[in-house]
Amino acid sequence: MTIQRIGGLAALTCAGTYVFGFVLLVTVMAELGYGTNAIDAAAAVRFSAENQAIMITWNTVIYIVNALALALLVVALANRLKSTSPEWGSVTLVFGVIWTTLVLGAGMIANVATERAVVLAQSDFDVAVQTWETLHAVELGLGGGNEIAGGVWILCVSLAGLLHRAFGKIVIGLGLLTGLGGLLTILPPLGDVAGAIFGLGAIVWFIAIGLALLFKRDAAAAHAVA
After folding, report:
1. What does the angle CA 15 – CA 181 – CA 37 come to, to the nearest 5 degrees?
2. What whole-number distance in Å separates Cα of residue 87 and Cα of residue 61?
3. How far apart are the first and last CA of the chain?
4. In the structure, how many helices (H) and strands (E) does the chain have?
5. Coil, strand or helix at 152
6. Distance between CA 163 and CA 211 in Å, rounded?
7. Residue-level pLDDT at 217
8. What's the CA gap between 226 and 223, in Å, rounded?
9. What pLDDT was estimated at residue 35?
10. Could you report the per-residue pLDDT of 80-109, keeping only the tens digit for each?
């Protein structure tokens, strides 16, 4: 199996992790305020203590599994772009590695926050809440609370695809919209809306780019459709 096909499967995996995350976010975790600036730390700690397996699974899928699949996709796209523009291939590789590292780090910290909060809650609930809030802030700073790194990477891939006809119009258009949404999460008033645009847009973009990698053998062919 070529790295292009592996990258295509990795992109679909990334889309799957986003869907999994959104489903839990709007169902069993809906009342906690995850994904917004109004998260209830005490409620999050209580939920974690009662549903530790769910929280660990959620963090692992949306961060760690996503990051591992993302690493493969970053390499596949960099190699794809290098065939038409070595410079752009290198640029996307650098930004992709940065984003992958931040996502992986956020996932590890999120799991540690959950584990520590559950242990501390047994003896001192207030300390558990404070500890969770501190570690959660670090998690958000790495990427859980903004999508700047991801937005930059997707924008670079899309711009390179546009300039060098490496992908079709649908892939490029989705990428530009999603990347812009990621960048706008830097603005607090737009954070929640921009984050939703990025997250939902990323699902569709990952699917589109995955299909392009799976079914288009080279950059010239990819220009025709996607």
Report:
1. 90
2. 32
3. 21
4. 10, 0
5. helix
6. 20
7. 58
8. 8
9. 61
10. 998 888 999 999 999 999 999 999 999 999
**DSSP annotation of 145:** S
Q: Give me the amino acid identity at 210.
A: G
**pTM for the full model?**
0.90
CA distance 144 to 136: 9
Mean pLDDT of 145-157: 92
Under the banding of pLDDT at 50, 70 and 90, the label for residue 14 is very high
Name residue 112's amino acid: V
- Which of 195, 174, 169 minimizes the C-alpha distance to 183? 195
82 Cβ neighbours under 8 A, 6+ residues apart: 89, 90
Calpha distance 93→73 (Å, rounded): 10
Delimit the domains of the chain by residue range.
3-222
Cβ-proximal residues to 9 (8 Å cutoff; 6+ apart), any chain: 210, 214
Torsion over CA of 65, 68, 74 and 76, rounded to 10 degrees? Answer: -100
| Rounded-to-5 percentages of helix, strand, coil across the chain | 85, 0, 15
Please give the single-letter amino acid code of residue 140. L
